[in-house]
């Protein structure tokens, strides 16, 4: 019997246009807690999806479970083999009882008219709960439980299925510190029983506390596997942020003009708190931080689609009250969302229709009807200046590549002649050539007098494009620096910072240089 | 360079084919009295189908539309039987309908209840209100001049109601294709999140959609009450699901975002030709429904597969270019 319960080697996964995983390796021993870490977009979720049978890997990879060819092509296969995945946004049935949730799926092969064996259901649930040393009423509906309790139900379910490998995706992200301790204990129990755990988290302290070994991914590639004793936090950060693709660092000091935009005391329960910052003419301000740090929520609050509880914003010396996207657009604020295909574009509609959507009221003739000539001219003008390819205004937006789609969204907002543009993950899912083009566009906008705030978790992008950087963590701005003084490790230290060690971050690395820097 | 016919043109050819086919095989189909009949029957159903189509383009449905029509007809009828003139009666009828549309629009757009639930509720609600007002009886006996709307001719050959219908066909087409509201209707129907993120006030767009549908229902009601010289709670109720069928057969995407006026009109014509032709052949009316239902299913199935096929083709070609 092999030491390893899970052996994945040479795993690649290609989506149209993107290589999400490139020759990745993940080997987990029996009874170990194995951490899987990497930045946003490093390929962790894709790898887990391959593991779970949601995606099939490209041909040529090796995927062994308990020393045998895994042959897992759908989630049920994985469950039956003893792999349980506990997703961040749990997958329980809120209107069913605890016992039912633990039992569900066991009877998949039973004829539908066969009665449910309530007694064996209860026994099974009770046994699993006892093993976890949990005391929750089995008849209670799951929706009445706390998130931590629901998580325990998921773990109990995994136990009831005799799982040999349990994957936990950011299990502590919504737990209180007391609940986190309890989870650690449960993980220790699982370990004692010889069950392996794959633990995904952004909190480095936590990873060192619970795991035995860790595997680092970066940009869809395998960086390495290390024992927790062989490596420290700083080395780990270096491994996570070093990148194959490097942009030229921004080394020029920006020619900063007057203050044009200000956010004061912005707060929203559960999203962000006490946000204060300003933007000057002539600079690109980057807001970075991990997913869940509140960056996107903040941007959407400024734009009015996620109304803040309190706080004020000023644009060009004018106090603004913005309670909807409509208000924002009227006041010259544009927001380009990260979810391009859902929030940014109306995919099934043409490039023209998309580009002129915010300004369509201004393109009317004397009969108050849309002037299709003016509309087409305006669209063609932006297609040309942004180099959208193919340059076909009537083409449906979903037929364009990611980069060209993004250009259409940018064109859409340029047509509205905004004073302030907030752009969220400007180059997410875009090929490298188009990325630099979009970066140049942002600079061009600033030079033309538009205020630009860029939200990005891609640090090389932040360091290449911006003039000043705000780092968010847990809904607060925890750091601010000029880009010429910044480097990836400094930023990561602040972004990854966990409770109770706030003052450590900034001082610990004084002159840390990213090893990939040019 | 692309010589492929649009979905609507294909449907138009099918309508023409059925028209000619019925004429060849059904004695009396081409007779002037039968053609005349069809011209008088077409507008009331066509107007409701157009209203339904506009709602479906937003991804919604208006199940209360024929009861809005009935309610509107009752309003106009009560005015006339109480001694008011034709014009005030028509105005009140339209106002009754707009009030219903505003109610639907408010609950759908401001509160965000799914249209199918809202209009299912208001369908029953409006029906109840009409029953309370009329006690289930018919109201009849309108001025002779009122009858001209549904029965009269313009210049001796073209039915007045058909002219009204053509006017609203053109109006709907212009509004949908040329007005900024129409543009937003399509954009909203395709992706209401993206329109919201583009500063479009979705609730305003939706509100106008339900108001416009109720306006078309009111016009249809005026034509119907005029033609029958009477109004009852079930005025036009048989058109309810037929109008959904016509919109969908006409190429309107039931998920929203696509739908053309001419497609719906061709579908209305197809229904009319088949129903009329089979009636002339003495086919039992329940069998007529079977035929129409079967056609609907066949066309929609074909549509589904041709969409799937063209999507697959597009995907494979985009992969090649990528």
UniProtKB/TrEMBL annotation, chain A:
Instruction: Provide the protein's localization.
Output: Cell membrane
The ABC transporter domain, residue ranges: 6-244, 246-499
Q: Where are the membrane-spanning stretches?
A: none
Which keywords fit this entry according to its UniProt record? ATP-binding, Cell membrane, Membrane, Nucleotide-binding, Repeat, Translocase, Transport
Q: Which domain of life is it from?
A: Bacteria
Q: Where is the segment annotated Disordered?
A: 498-518
Record's compositionally biased regions (Basic and acidic residues)? 499-518
Which Pfam families does the annotation name? ABC_tran
Bilayer topology: Peripheral membrane protein
Gene Ontology MF: a single term: ATP hydrolysis activity
Could you state one GO cellular component term attached to this entry? plasma membrane
PANTHER family this protein is in?
CARBOHYDRATE TRANSPORT ATP-BINDING PROTEIN MG119-RELATED, GALACTOFURANOSE TRANSPORTER ATP-BINDING PROTEIN YTFR
The protein in question is named Rhamnose transport system ATP-binding protein
Species annotation: Salibacterium qingdaonense
TrEMBL record, chain B:
**Which GO MF term does the entry hold, naming one?**
transmembrane transporter activity
Classification via Pfam families:
BPD_transp_2
Kindly report the protein's main subcellular placement as a broad class: membrane
Residues in a coiled coil are: none
Q: Which residues cross the membrane?
A: 12-33, 45-70, 76-99, 111-133, 153-176, 209-228, 286-305
Q: Which InterPro entries match?
A: ABC_transp_permease
User: What does UniProt give as GO cellular component?
Assistant: plasma membrane
Specify the protein's topology with respect to the membrane. Answer: Multi-pass membrane protein
Q: Where in the cell is it found?
A: Cell membrane
What are the UniProt keywords, alphabetically? Cell inner membrane, Cell membrane, Membrane, Transmembrane, Transmembrane helix, Transport
The name on file for this protein is Ribose transport system permease protein
């Amino acid at each position: 019997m092999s030491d390893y319960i899970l052996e994945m080697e040479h795993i690649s996964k290609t989506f149209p246009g993107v290589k999400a995983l490139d020759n990745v390796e993940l080997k987990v021993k029996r009874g170990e807690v194995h951490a899987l870490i990497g930045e946003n977009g490093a390929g962790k979720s894709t790898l887990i999806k391959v593991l779970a049978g949601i995606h099939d890997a490209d041909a040529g990879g090796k995927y062994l479970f308990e020393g045998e060819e895994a042959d897992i092509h759908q989630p049920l296969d994985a469950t039956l083999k003893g792999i349980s995945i506990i997703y961040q946004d749990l997958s329980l049935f809120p209107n069913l009882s605890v016992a039912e949730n633990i039992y569900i799926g066991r009877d998949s092969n039973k004829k539908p008219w066969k009665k449910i064996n309530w007694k064996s259901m209860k026994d099974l649930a009770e046994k699993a709960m006892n093993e976890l040393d949990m005391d929750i009423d089995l008849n209670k509906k799951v929706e009445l439980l706390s998130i931590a309790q629901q998580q325990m139900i998921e773990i109990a379910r995994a136990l009831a299925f005799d799982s040999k490998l349990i994957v936990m995706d950011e299990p502590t992200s919504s737990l209180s510190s007391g609940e986190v301790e309890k989870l650690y204990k449960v993980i220790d129990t699982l370990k004692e029983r010889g069950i392996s755990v794959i633990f995904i988290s952004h909190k480095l302290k936590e990873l060192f506390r619970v795991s035995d070994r860790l595997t680092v991914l970066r940009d869809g590639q395998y960086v390495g596997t290390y024992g927790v004793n062989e490596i420290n936090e700083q080395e780990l950060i270096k491994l996570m942020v070093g990148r194959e693709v490097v942009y030229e660092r921004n080394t020029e000091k920006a020619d900063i003009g007057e203050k044009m935009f200000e956010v004061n005391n912005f707060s929203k329960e559960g999203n962000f708190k006490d946000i204060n910052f300003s933007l000057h003419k002539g600079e690109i301000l980057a807001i970075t931080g991990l997913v869940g740090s509140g960056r996107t929520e903040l941007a959407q609050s400024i734009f009015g689609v996620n109304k803040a509880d309190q706080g004020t914003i000023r644009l060009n010396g004018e106090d603004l009250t913005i309670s909807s996207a409509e208000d924002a657009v009227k006041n010259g604020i544009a927001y380009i969302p990260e979810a391009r295909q859902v929030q940014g574009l109306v995919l099934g509609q043409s490039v023209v229709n998309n580009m002129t959507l915010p300004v369509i009221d201004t393109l009317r003739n004397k009969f108050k009807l849309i002037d299709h000539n003016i509309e087409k001219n305006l669209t063609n003008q932006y297609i040309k200046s942004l180099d959208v390819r193919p340059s076909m205004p009537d083409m449906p937006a979903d037929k364009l590549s990611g980069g060209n789609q993004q250009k259409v969204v940018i064109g859409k907002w340029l047509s509205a002649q905004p004073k302030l543009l907030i752009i969220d993950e400007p180059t997410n899912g875009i090929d490298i050539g188009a990325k630099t083009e979009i970066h140049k566009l942002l600079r061009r906008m600033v030079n033309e007098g538009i205020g630009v705030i860029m939200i990005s978790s891609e640090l090389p992008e932040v360091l290449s494009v911006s003039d000043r950087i705000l780092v968010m963590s847990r809904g607060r701005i925890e750091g601010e620096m000029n880009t010429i003084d910044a480097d990836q490790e400094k930023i990561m230290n602040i972004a990854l910072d966990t409770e109770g060690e706030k003052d450590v971050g900034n001082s610990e690395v004084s002159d840390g240089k990213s090893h990939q820097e040019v | 360079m692309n010589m492929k016919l649009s979905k609507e043109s294909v449907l138009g050819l099918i309508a023409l084919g059925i028209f000619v086919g019925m004429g060849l095989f059904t004695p009396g189909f081409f007779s002037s009295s039968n053609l005349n009949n069809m011209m008088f029957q077409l507008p009331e159903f066509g107007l409701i189908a157009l209203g339904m189509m506009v709602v479906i383009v937003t991804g919604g449905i208006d199940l209360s539309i024929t009861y809005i029509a009935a309610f509107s007809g009752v309003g106009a009828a009560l005015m006339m039987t109480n001694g008011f003139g034709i014009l005030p009666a028509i105005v009140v009828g339209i106002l009754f309908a707009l009030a219903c549309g505003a109610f639907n629009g408010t609950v759908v757009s401001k509160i965000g209840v799914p249209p199918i639930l809202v209009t299912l509720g208001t369908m029953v609600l409006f029906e109840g209100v009409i029953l309370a007002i009329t006690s289930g009886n018919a109201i009849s006996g309108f001025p002779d001049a009122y009858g001209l709307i549904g029965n009269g001719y313009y210049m001796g050959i073209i039915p007045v109601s058909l002219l009204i219908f053509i006017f609203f066909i053109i109006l709907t087409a212009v509004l949908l294709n040329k007005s900024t509201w129409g543009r937003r209707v399509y954009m909203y129907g395709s992706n209401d999140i993206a329109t919201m993120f583009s500063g479009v006030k979705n609730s305003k767009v939706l509100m106008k959609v339900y108001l416009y549908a109720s306006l078309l229902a009111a016009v249809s009601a005026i034509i119907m009450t005029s033609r029958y010289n009477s109004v009852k709670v079930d005025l036009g109720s048989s058109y309810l699901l037929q109008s959904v069928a016509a919109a969908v057969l006409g190429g309107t995407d039931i998920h929203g975002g696509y739908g053309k006026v001419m497609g719906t009109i061709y579908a209305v014509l197809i229904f009319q030709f088949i129903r009329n032709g089979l009636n002339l052949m003495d086919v039992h009316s329940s069998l007529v429904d079977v035929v129409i239902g079967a056609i609907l299913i066949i066309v929609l199935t074909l549509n589904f597969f041709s969409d799937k096929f063209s999507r697959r083709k597009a995907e494979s070609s985009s992969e090649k270019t990528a």
